[in-house]
Design a protein that fits this description.
The chain is α+β, with helices and mostly antiparallel strands and 328 residues long. It has 5 helices and 19 strands.
């Protein structure tokens, strides 16, 4: 027991020293495709995923999925743990507790915060963070008004990183394009609420640094990103305004790839958007073999999703994660 305790002290000391010496970190955004637990949450339409429900969701399938998510996060950086991870489509504390305490992520010192949204299905967004590099000082859920049917809250976490600089991180999952004009209007309204909140943060923080990660459900050319957020392409210019937002994923994904594939066509609907004074060294999509399978119908590869319709497919997610390496 004494030897085990000594090893633990040495292990934790190593990561603490590593964090103090660290000046850069990787961040990751990942839509986990319906990471539900096995129980019904009161007031939520989650019956498909209760044990014995239509999808025959069970402990084995749930634990396989969560361990797969953990593997993806661990594999995203082979040098040091990913500093901050935004997760979409996670149901509740049961799911997140298992992920950080009962998978290989336990050894990497992660903690989390998440929303408790009025979304009808009960899916939320969460932020995983390494306790060695990021310390939250403010956590708040931004609930957009006047958007019709309930949707996911926006998660805002302000914290200190490395030498004490403040970083404001947002985890978002915008409404989908389903529903035509109504869905588009709802998405725009949520994006306006996001922009208003980001502007308020930047107005009071001197040289404030903002990162917005998540599933936007739209590509860069959409009104939500180019008009409402007024986000430019990060890599198109060497001069950037600290008061403007920039999409760091555009131009960094190889041709013939994306973050989501529908009927053989790739699209990039997962984004990392930063304020102009966040120094991004590199960015891209994580196309790890754990996440892919052959696309027998359309050719090439596609994300290996957990379900195809109601047929269990055994994969991790229908999205590929996006990442960025930032210097603080």
């Amino acid at each position: 027991m004494k030897l085990l305790f000594l090893h633990l002290i040495i292990y934790m000391s190593f990561f603490t020293m590593m964090a103090r010496a660290q000046t850069s970190m990787k961040i990751l955004s990942f839509n986990c495709e319906n990471a539900f637990d096995l129980s019904h949450d009161e007031g939520k339409d989650d019956y498909e995923y209760v044990e014995g429900g239509q999808r025959y969701w069970n402990k084995g399938r749930l634990y396989k999925k969560l361990n797969g998510i953990a593997q993806v996060i661990a594999a995203a950086d082979t040098i040091r743990p990913v500093g901050i991870v935004a997760l979409c489509e996670v149901e509740n504390d049961t799911v997140l507790n298992y992920l950080v305490k009962k998978t290989p992520l336990k050894a990497l010192g992660y903690d989390y915060v998440m929303t408790d949204s009025p979304d009808n299905r009960g899916v939320d967004v969460a932020l995983l963070y390494s306790r060695f590099v990021f310390k939250p000082v403010l956590v708040e859920c931004v609930r957009p008004d006047h958007v019709g049917t309930p949707t996911r809250d926006i998660l805002h976490v302000a914290g200190t990183v490395f030498d004490g600089d403040t970083l404001d991180v947002y985890a978002v999952h915008l409404p989908s394009k389903l529903g035509g004009k109504q869905g588009q209007t709802k998405s725009i309204q949520v994006t306006k609420a996001l922009k208003q909140h980001v502007d308020s943060v930047l107005s009071v923080r001197h040289d404030g640094k903002v990162i917005i990660m998540g599933d936007y459900n739209v590509e860069y050319k959409s009104k939500q990103i180019t008009d409402v957020l007024n986000a430019d392409k990060y890599w198109s210019s060497n001069t950037r305004s600290k008061d403007r937002l920039y999409d760091v994923i555009v131009g960094k994904i190889p041709k013939g790839l994306g973050t989501y594939k529908y009927k053989g066509k790739w699209s990039v609907i997962d984004h990392i958007i930063v304020s102009g004074n966040v120094n991004v060294v590199d960015a891209g999509v994580l196309n790890n073999i754990l996440l892919l399978e052959n696309d027998e119908k359309y050719g090439g590869v596609k994300p290996r999703r957990t379900y195809i319709g109601y047929k269990y497919n055994g994969g991790i997610s229908d999205h590929l994660p996006v990442w960025a390496k930032v210097e603080m």
